[in-house]
Structures are given as structure tokens and as C-alpha cells.
């Protein structure tokens, strides 16, 4: 699901390269009967769609086996313990060629433990890291939400191409993070993570502390 998006296209190419037969479907497809038939006849359904769309899909197809959800917020799926496979690949179309190790987080308090083997078969040479949905969202608040917020703020600072310092170049790199991502994905990653308010408070406290020095 979501094969026309950036992540969906990347996964389609990745899985086909490993010899799997892939049938792509998009949430905008009008032929819902055909899509539903393909879903029902698939060995697994990978949801490369916005989080709210994934949540609705899971609710509407709770009887299906091997639904694989890959989004960046996990606690919203806590009611589906044992019914879906929750993972979070920490690589994608912009980073998969990097030499850094490829990690996938496996949400072990939602996903059936026996599904680890299926994930390893699908993705190949990856490092599978197990953790709870709550711990995942806490960590993502620090390593995804915070960089996204800072990047969005950085993108609003005027860049002077004719003059630069090391600091300004680093600021430009920070701004590039949000520019490379879908605006909708950024907003949902921030708004749906239950620990985002903590990050906002830390940032605001830092700004207030700086204000005291001006």
C-alpha cells in the first residue's frame, strides 16, 4: 500500500530485487474492489502510507494476517497487540546507499515474536532491534521529532550564499533535513508522537534561557 510514494517506491524496488512478487496499490486508486481483492490474496501487506491512513486500514482489516506497519509512531497501534507487525526501518530512499549499518526497530509488545523471521527474509542483511512501542516513541521524539523541529526553524533563517561560516553551513545542512522530507510526513511525525510536547518544552526553555542573556 502506498507504492507511489517515496518510501513505497523504494520498498517496491527493494523487495522486487530480492525476488518477491509485488503488487502495488495506492490510497488514491479508484478501483477499491480490485484493491481489496489483491489485499485479501496477498501473503503480506506493507503499509507505506501516512500514519492516520495506516491506522484506519488496520482497523478495517484486523482479520488479515501479516499486515506490516512501518511508520514512525507506534503507540497509536497498541490496541492491535498480536494482530499486526510493527516495524520502523531506520533507512529509506535517501539513506539506503550509505555505508552505515541498516537497522529496523521491531516493536515487540505489539508484533508476534515469530514474525521476526519474516522481516529478516524480506529485508535481508539488516540489524533487528527490539523494543516496546512506548520506548520507540520516546526515542523517536529525541532523534526524529527534535531534529525535524530544529530543521524547520533553521529553514526560516536567511542563507547568504556569498558569505558563509562553518556555523552557517551547518545551519544550512540542518535546514536541508526538512526540505528533503514531505511536509505532511514532518507534521504527522511531530503531531502524533505523544512525547513531542516534551521536546517543544525543552526547546522553548532553551529559547527563554537565551533570552535572558540578550
UniProtKB/TrEMBL annotation:
<keyword id="KW-0560">Oxidoreductase</keyword>
<dbReference type="GO" id="GO:0006571">
    <property type="term" value="P:tyrosine biosynthetic process"/>
</dbReference>
<dbReference type="InterPro" id="IPR036291">
    <property type="entry name" value="NAD(P)-bd_dom_sf"/>
</dbReference>
<dbReference type="GO" id="GO:0070403">
    <property type="term" value="F:NAD+ binding"/>
</dbReference>
<protein>
    <submittedName>
        <fullName>Prephenate dehydrogenase/arogenate dehydrogenase family protein</fullName>
    </submittedName>
</protein>
<dbReference type="InterPro" id="IPR050812">
    <property type="entry name" value="Preph/Arog_dehydrog"/>
</dbReference>
<dbReference type="GO" id="GO:0008977">
    <property type="term" value="F:prephenate dehydrogenase (NAD+) activity"/>
</dbReference>
